[in-house]
């Protein structure tokens, strides 16, 4: 169970890690505890699976990467094999099975368009894949995976 | 433009962030630069928007947000900007994009919704639809997570090899 302190710490640490020599000392000051307490609690929260990843999050398009959201219709018996083959691409960061017409929805990040085209063609040709749609973004209005605890 | 040192910094920063008193000093050591230079470059990336955030991404199921739905919408082209701004203002909307539709899939606008239950997702979608004056949407609930990971940018720079 998360304590009230854990929730305060997680709410703060989702966006506000300072870029400074002693970032956790600053966080500790905000929460009116000492640095060692913050570090011990963060390590515990990470070890117990509450924190997926800690650190720097970059904007792929600002770094020159090309991205898309794609979906495939897959024969029911092939889902696991197709999911595994899609996951094998290093630029696939998310791959979810969803209810509805298309079975697997995945995001693909590649250094350029040619790499994206190659990957999508390979995925479209996987055994069991009936069809594939690619839905590149034209505008990004919000990316903010923060939760109020 | 990113130089080779930028790429190396970004590649190393995609790895584990040390949960120690002086994490940037440790990372600077791995990169082979001073702590000061690393702090300056990171501050620069943040100002330019290349660095979206420094902090934690939580496992949403573990912190109580068990339901997530990708909500696909049909939005008239001329209303995209207005709807994008409106929907981005909702806490439950974590991602909001306009996308190019396909002949067999006409949805051109996408919001990711996170909530505690599926019913809550449905209520939020209905609320969004009403607020934006939209009728055509579909909620795609996830049934299984096959992969969720962070991108490794410029992986060839991570190990200290000088790529050309």
Ordered list of secondary-structure elements with their pairings:
The complex is a heterodimer of chains A (149) and B (164).
Chain A lengths: L3 H10 L9 H9 L3 H13 L3 E8 L7 E9 L4 H9 L4 E7 L5 E7 L2 H12 L4 E7 L1 E7 L6
Antiparallel strand pairs in A: 2-4, 2-5, 3-4
Helix pairs in contact in A: 2-3
Chain B lengths: L3 H10 L9 H9 L3 H14 L2 E8 L8 E7 L6 H9 L4 E7 L9 E7 L2 H15 L4 E12 L16
Antiparallel strand pairs in B: 2-4, 2-5, 3-4
Identify the notable features of this structure and list them briefly.
heterodimer, A: 149 residues, alpha+beta, 2 domains, 4-stranded antiparallel beta sheet, 5 helices, 6 strands, 30% strand, elongated, B: 164 residues, Arc Repressor Mutant, subunit A, Alpha-Beta Plaits, Dimeric_a/b-barrel (chain A), WH-like_DNA-bd_sf (chain A), lyase (chain A)
CATH hierarchy: architecture of the largest domain in chain A: 2-Layer Sandwich
Percent of residues in helices of chain B comes to 25-40%
SSE ordering of chain A: HHHEEHEEHEE
Radius of gyration of chain B: 20 Å
| Poorly predicted runs of chain A | none
CATH architecture of the largest domain in chain B: 2-Layer Sandwich
| CATH class term of the largest domain in chain A | Alpha Beta
Shape of chain B: elongated
CATH topology heading of the largest domain in chain B: Alpha-Beta Plaits
User: From the helix content, strand content and strand pairing of chain A, which structural class follows?
Assistant: alpha+beta
CATH topology of the largest domain in chain A: Alpha-Beta Plaits
> Overall pLDDT of chain B, averaged?
92
Domain Siroheme decarboxylase NirL-like HTH (chain A): 6-52
InterPro entries (chain A): AsnC_trans_reg2 (IPR040523), Dimeric_a/b-barrel (IPR011008), HTH-Siroheme_Decarb (IPR050684), NirdL-like_HTH (IPR053953), Tscrpt_reg_AsnC-like (IPR019888), WH-like_DNA-bd_sf (IPR036388), WH_DNA-bd_sf (IPR036390)
EC number (chain A): 4.1.1.111
Family (chain A): Belongs to the Ahb/Nir family.
């Amino acid at each position: 169970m998360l304590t009230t302190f854990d929730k305060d710490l997680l709410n703060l640490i989702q966006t506000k890690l300072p870029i400074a020599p002693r970032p956790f000392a600053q966080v500790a000051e905000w929460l009116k505890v000492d640095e060692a307490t913050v570090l011990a609690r963060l390590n515990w929260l990470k070890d117990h699976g509450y924190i997926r990843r800690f650190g720097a999050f970059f904007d792929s398009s600002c770094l020159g990467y090309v991205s898309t959201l794609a979906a495939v219709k897959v024969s029911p018996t092939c889902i696991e094999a197709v999911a595994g083959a899609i996951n094998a691409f290093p630029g696939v960061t998310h791959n979810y099975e969803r209810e509805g017409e298309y079975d697997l929805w995945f995001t693909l990040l590649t250094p350029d368009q040619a790499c994206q085209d190659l990957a999508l063609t390979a995925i479209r040709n996987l055994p069991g894949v009936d069809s594939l749609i690619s839905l590149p973004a034209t505008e990004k209005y919000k990316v903010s995976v923060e939760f109020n605890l | 433009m990113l130089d080779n040192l930028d790429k190396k910094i970004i590649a190393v920063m995609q790895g584990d962030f040390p949960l120690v008193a002086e994490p940037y000093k440790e990372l600077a050591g791995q990169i082979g630069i001073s702590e000061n230079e690393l702090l300056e470059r990171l501050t620069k990336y943040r100002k330019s928007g290349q660095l979206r955030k420094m902090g934690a991404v939580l496992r949403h199921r573990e912190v109580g947000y068990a339901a997530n739905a990708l909500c696909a919408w049909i939005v008239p082209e001329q209303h995209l900007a207005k709807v994008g701004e409106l929907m981005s203002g909702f806490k439950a909307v974590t991602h909001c994009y306009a996308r190019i539709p396909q002949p067999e899939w006409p949805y051109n606008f996408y919001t990711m919704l996170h909530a505690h239950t599926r019913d809550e997702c449905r209520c939020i979608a209905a609320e969004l639809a009403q607020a934006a004056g939209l009728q055509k949407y579909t909620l795609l609930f996830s049934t299984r997570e096959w992969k969720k990971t962070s991108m490794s940018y410029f992986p060839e720079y991570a190990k200290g090899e000088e790529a050309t």
